[in-house]
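Thread: "does anyone have the structure for this chain?"

Original post by V.I.:
We have the sequence but no experimental structure in hand. Need at least a predicted one for the grant figures.
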Amino acid sequence: MTIERLMNYSHIQADIAAIRVQLQDLERPISSPNGKTDGGSGSTPGNPTERAAFRRMELEDDLQEYLDLLEKEAKEINDWLRTLGNVEVEAIIRWHFLNGKTWAETSGIMYKNLSKDHCRKVFYRFRDENMDLFGPI
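Reply from O.Q.:
Generated one for you, tokens below.
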């Protein structure tokens, strides 16, 4: 697991939330367009409502596929986190990388009165001792 993937977690969660809202918006019924033409060329009759519904279904499928991909990535990060075997470091990673807290905020949550650098040092010491878990720097 790279630091970049961990840092990307909060963005993944925000994107998941945005896509879910977009999918909910797509569930609203569509109304027929006004006018007698469908905006197409020639004299071929068309059904603009059907075409609009088809485009919405395609968009919904694309969004659902991307949502599934993002949820899989988030699950992989959480599954990896549970394999660390160090609850202290897991909590540091969760607060700092997954919840987007600064090192000072994370240290305040985790250790109350210790220096703002303490949890950063704990994390990097653990990472340096377990490079096989983190991949290339």
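V.I.: this helps a lot. The chain has a mean pLDDT of 82.
O.Q.: and The helical segments are 3-26, 48-82, 87-98, 103-111, 118-129, 131-134.
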